[in-house]
What does this fold into?
Amino acid sequence: MLYTGTQNRQSIRINRGGEDDYMDIPPFAPDPGLIQAVNQSISTTWPLLIRGDTSMGLRAVYAICYELFGPEFSQRYFAAEMGKFQSTVGDLLYHFDHERRKRDLEYHRLDPENNPVKPVADYLTKEVLIGMLEFESKGDERPVLNIRNIHKAEKTFVTDLMDLLLVHRFVKIHETGEEYIKRYGLPFLFLTADQDYQLPDKRDYHGIIYTYDLTLSREFLLENCKLEFAEILQAEPAMEPIIENLIELFGLVEDFASVSKVEGSGQSTYLELANAIQGKWEAIQSGSTTADAVLEELTAVIAGQKAILKNLDVSAILPEIITAIRAAEFKTAFAKLEVIQQRLPGPKRTALNAFIIRYHDLKKKEMLGTESTLLLVPQTTQLMLDVLNFLEELG
It folds into this structure.
């Protein structure tokens, strides 16, 4: 089994078994790094953690599964999205409504004739992990498990998940007495998270990690946009330079949504880029503007953004950043680092981004310390030394 990344070049709709139960697989063109990571995951049977734009992460997982298992992959595919209502491994096992059962039993006590006792199973909702275990018990196929947005889960989520899948391999629903024993090793396990996500303890994760930054991957974005908007490009070839300009703008600004006037999260994401392309196309189609006018407007915006970056004197800001770091004024220092990041060439920008990710991770863990306690926090001390060395090379 080998992933080539060559098969999913157009939108595909597959039936998942029901009359109106479909799954849409968008086109996707992976970069070489992702192809390598997938094949490492296959050969080792280790999970694959994809960090970056989570909407692109989902596209990647769909494309990988479709190529490896064909249209039938939906029969073995189990997915969950972490968030407000699902943040622990237990949330992905089952939910038993104790409150409703307690209330119904009270109604039965008061009026047994009109309120018969319901089966215990009526209060049980089986979640994705139980569904996966039930699938395993019925056949010999290795299931696919995709858990999205794990950066929204509890810190111990990955450790707890690995513990369940590899160590305990046993689940009991105490309220009903049902028991599940995991027959195989790990499923084909995909985890997706935002670019800033850091594993609490990498020693508890035996797997492959792949990270991408969309703002640094112009060719990758262009190829995927051309695939997604193939019909539009065929109908209106003048959209190609518009897409190219939007991608260039995407790589220049931190908050693409506000600059391109589309709804967004305050962080540049692929969905915001796609919405901007669709919006420009719809405006041209409606007659409210022309392709030439859109291109002229984008050219002016890009020129403005480049002028801002050109006028940014990195060498003048570096001493301010160094002073702030030495005074343990981390918020000030990293705010300025994020500004100059936009001005740096590719490799140095990538290196600086890694420091910024480490900073936000320590900030989340409340491990930054202050000027007086800095030496008591070795992770922070090491980060600041690494940043100072980087800035010296940059200067």
In short: The two ends are 48 Å apart (CA to CA). The domain at 12-96+107-112+118-212 is CATH 3.40.50.300 (Rossmann fold). DSSP finds 15 helices and eleven strands in the chain. The chain has three domains: 12-96+107-112+118-212, 215-310, 314-394.
